[in-house]
Write a structure and sequence with these properties.
- The protein has about 210 residues and is α/β, with parallel strands linked by helices.
- The protein has one domain: Flavodoxin domain (Rossmann fold, 3-Layer(aba) Sandwich).
- It is built from seven helices and seven strands; from the N terminus they run βαβααβαβββααβα.
- Strand 4 and strand 5 form a beta hairpin.
- Helix 1 runs parallel beside helix 7 and helix 2 packs across helix 3.
- The longest helix is centred in the middle third of the chain and has 18 residues.
- It starts with a strand and ends with a helix.
- The relative contact order is 0.18.
- The structure holds flavin mononucleotide (FMN).
- Flavin mononucleotide binds next to helix 1.
């Protein structure tokens, strides 16, 4: 049995290309083994804590090994709970649109909450930065209106794929597969979705 955390970042639901493809991944994962389970984290229906002054102070206290105030402890407890939920899965699936060459703010907010010293990464002067979410796989299903995989000039504008792959690598993921759906704002949308679904089903079948 294994568990999949599915983090969903498009608000467009039944009109979303990234969700449509991600759902074929989820279905294959569930069909593969009757006792597999999926937790769906819909970021548009999840209230995340503001990443505010108390939380940032708590983060720096943790980093510097100092004693936090009661307010900072309370703020850090909320962050720890969400991060523990994140770390509990065996496999991860992220679906996201490209927004302004990057990711929607809801997904960035979630990353800001879970990317924490002592929880998902660590630092020591001797060994540098080390990711703490290890031995797990992540699949990214990324929809974009334009086509960014066609050459170096447009690829340099793609901060969606590069950012997500980098930050997941930073917190410890080594096994990251990315399924692109592009270009969704053209007549090629349906065939792009069909090709991406095949890739997603294949990847889910390999888990
Ligand atoms: C606010 C917003 C910003 C967008 N910015 C970009 C962009 O920078 N580059 C691009 O190629 N497409 C952009 N698009 C188009 C989406 O990436 C495209 O429609 C994609 O299919 C959305 O994914 P979804 O269908 O899963 O929601 C944008 C769409 C929205 C709503």
């Amino acid at each position: 049995m294994s568990t999949l955390l599915y983090v969903e970042a498009s608000p467009r639901k039944d009109r979303s290309a990234s969700i449509e493809v991600a759902q074929s991944f989820v279905s294959t994962f569930l069909e593969k083994d009757a006792i597999n389970t999926v937790e769906n984290l819909d970021l548009w229906n999840t209230l995340l804590p503001p990443f505010d002054g108390d939380t940032i102070n708590a983060k720096y206290r943790v980093m510097h090994g100092e004693d936090p105030t009661p307010e900072e402890i309370a703020a850090w407890d909320v962050i720890t709970k969400i991060t523990d939920q994140f770390k509990a899965a065996d496999h991860y699936l992220f679906s996201s649109p490209m927004w302004n060459f990057s990711i929607p703010y809801k997904l960035k907010h979630y990353i800001d909450v879970i990317s924490q010293p002592g929880l998902t990464w660590s630092f020591s002067p001797e060994t540098g930065y080390e990711g703490l979410v290890t031995g797990k796989s992540a699949t990214l299903v990324l929809a974009r209106g334009g086509e960014y995989s066609s050459g170096p000039v447009v690829a340099a504008m793609d901060f969606q794929r590069t950012y997500l792959e980098m930050i997941l690598g930073f917190i410890g993921f080594k096994d990251i597969n990315t399924v692109l759906i592009e270009p969704t704002l053209t007549d090629a949308k349906d065939s792009a979705i069909a090709i991406a679904k095949e890739e997603a089903v294949k990847l889910a079948g390999q888990l």
